[in-house]
Amino acid sequence: MSQDLIRLDPEMISTDWQLLRKVRPNDQEYQEMLQSIRDEGVKVPIVVRKIPVDGGEIFSLVDGGNRLHISKALKLPNIPCFVEEDCNDIRALSLQASLNIQRIETKKGELARQINRISNMDDSLSQVQIAKLFGKSIGWVRQILSINDLPDYVITLLDEGKITTQNAILLTKAPEVDLGKLIDDAQVLTKDAFEVLVNECVRQRRTHSGKQVSDDWVPTPERRKVAELLAKVQRKKVTAKEVEHINAIESQLESFFEGILYALSMDELTVESRRVERTAQLEAQQEREILRQLERKAEETAELQKRLEKFTKENT
Q1: 121 Cβ partners below 8 Å, 6+ apart?
Q2: CA-CA distance, 142 to 172, in Å (whole number)?
Q3: Helix, coil or strand: residue 66
Q4: Domain 1-87, what fold?
Q5: pLDDT tens digits, 59-90
């Protein structure tokens, strides 16, 4: 990073580009920083880069979102900045992540999404190369990236500190159908104890792999939106399957209860549709896991080949 320190008007610095950490004015960290900057000014320089725009250039923020936001709020005349030279998007994203990895305020979900952005920006970047960008092992990169496969509600629990990073990574290895029953244990068990539980779930799924995965699924009520129900009534259109199902209803009372079940997505046709959709999702997840394993093997093979070539070159 450039060591040339300059001072810029905070209003001259653009924040349009995506940042690793969102500015959260209500957080305790922000409020403490606000008081510190109000009393003593900005002590730690932010990091910016130059971006060409319409024949000129602007300064764009790379790191220091809270400091810049507070400086603008307090209308400070200037803020100390390090200017990162020749900084493209991938360099900016990796620099953000590198500067924030060790900060306790940085949420693992944010870090996982950032590394995923870097990976998506350049398809030619392997996980080995990304690991070198951060000075980390390829295993670390894989584990952090695997967090992106978790449902949003699990990532939220991780970011809130209710689930440890180790247990979140173990959840990525658990069968998707078991996530619901594992989530409570993930919040209270140690890594070693939770690993035993996850491994047992995996073992049981493998033991019953000859059965359809959806056979173990138990449907739960999911209330339909009022707009969806109103649209159904107003259109007065039903499918052939729905007509067949309606004709099988023998009494008004049974029809009444069937309507309640439909509103809760628990009627026979909806449950079957959900079961088919869930089976398709699980099959797709299994396919993605196989592809991930093949990619990992290919990357490991490529890395071993490079090491072998280097060793051969040094010893001939």
Answers
A1: 89, 90, 93
A2: 11
A3: helix
A4: 3.90.1530
A5: 888 888 889 999 999 999 999 998 888 888 88
* Secondary structure (3-state) at 210: coil
For β-strands 46-53 and 5-8, DSSP reports them as: unpaired
Q: Which 3 state secondary structure label does DSSP give 38?
A: helix
The rounded radius of gyration (Å) of the Cα atoms in the chain is 27
* Encoded tokens for 54: 């319409």
List pLDDT tens digits, range 197-213: 888 888 777 765 544 44
Least confident piece of the model among 10-14, 55-59, 92-96: 92-96
Pairwise pLDDT comparison (122 vs 130), residue with the higher score: 130
Q: Is the pTM of this model over 0.85?
A: no
- Domain limits of the chain? 1-87, 102-149, 153-210, 222-316
Task: Provide the 3-class DSSP secondary structure of residue 138.
Answer: helix
Return the percent helix, strand and coil in the chain, to nearest 5: 60, 10, 30
DSSP at 220? -
